[in-house]
Every structure is written in structure tokens, then in C-alpha cells.
Amino acid sequence: MTDKNNGHDEQQGRLRDGVDSVVTIASDAVDTSREKARELAHQTAHVAETNPLGIVAGGLALGALVGAVLPRSQKEKEILSPIGKRLGATAVAAFAAARESGKSEFQNLGLTKGGAKDQVKTLVQNVAGAAATAGKAAASAGKKELSHANEQSAVPTSAA
Fold first, then answer.
1. pLDDT tens, 37-73?
2. Dist. CA 79–CA 82, nearest whole Å
3. Rounded CA gap, 40 and 57, in Å?
4. What share of the chain is helix, strand, coil (3-state, %, to 5)?
5. Helices marked H in 51-73 — which ranges?
6. 3-state SS assignment for residue 36
7. Is the whole-model pTM more than 0.70?
8. Same domain, 84 and 122
9. How many domains does the chain have?
10. Which of 24, 35, 47, 99 has a CA-to-CA distance to 118 between 20 and 30 Å?
11. Residues 58 and 3 both lie in one domain
């Protein structure tokens, strides 16, 4: 009977060791998962802070993808078809009105295609002229500084 009890105790000991080992592994896995979740949350918060427009664009893209993948029901087609047609017509009309308004505004300001080319040409010439003047001034200042440095090195120093 003692041998039976020893065998039973031995099995219980091994079983306890196995359970302890599983608990330790599970605990480590939970800790690792928590740490990874924290890191991911910090990275996500950092991205959201540094690039909020990227998050919005990603959300819009994801929404568009989901909307494109999901099939439309007959009811949606019945309800949304007239709205889509009206939105399309309104967008075309708005674009045409904005284009005409923009053209007339540019003409009122004297900004025609040829006028804009002339203004850009004048701007480029002025920038080039300013760069040339700045270059000449820098060269002149450099020559003066070099001349001054040569004069200083040519003056003999007096011995005390």
C-alpha cells in the first residue's frame, strides 16, 4: 500500500509541476501580450498625433473599400439612384459655374494666358537679376575681406 501511495504522490507531484508550468507559460504570454498591446497603442497614438490627415484618409479609404465590396440591395438602389443622379448633375453644374466664374475673374484682373506668361517671365528675370546682384555683392565683400586680411599679414609686428 505504501508503494501505491508513493506512486500516487509521485503522479500528483508531476501533475502539479505540469500545471505550474502551464500557469507560468500562460502568465508570461499574457504579460507579453499586454506589453505588445501597450507598444501598439503608443505607436498608434504617435502616428495619429504626427499625421492626423493620414488617419482620416486611411479611414475614408477603408470605408470606400468596404462600401465597394459589399453588394447593394435592391432597396438601396431604389432609394439612392435618384439621389446619385441629382448629386452628379449638381456637381457638373457647380464645376461649370466655378470654371466660368474663375475665367471672368481672371479676365477682370487682366490675367489672360499671355499676360500670365509675361508676368512669370518678368518674375524670373527679376529673380535672376536679384541673384546676380547678390552674387556680385558677395564677391565684392569677399575681395575686400581678402584684401584686408592681406594688409594685416603684410604689417610687421613689433617686438617688445
1. 888 888 878 877 787 788 788 888 888 888 888 877 8
2. 7
3. 20
4. 90, 0, 10
5. 52-69
6. helix
7. no
8. no
9. 3
10. 99
11. yes
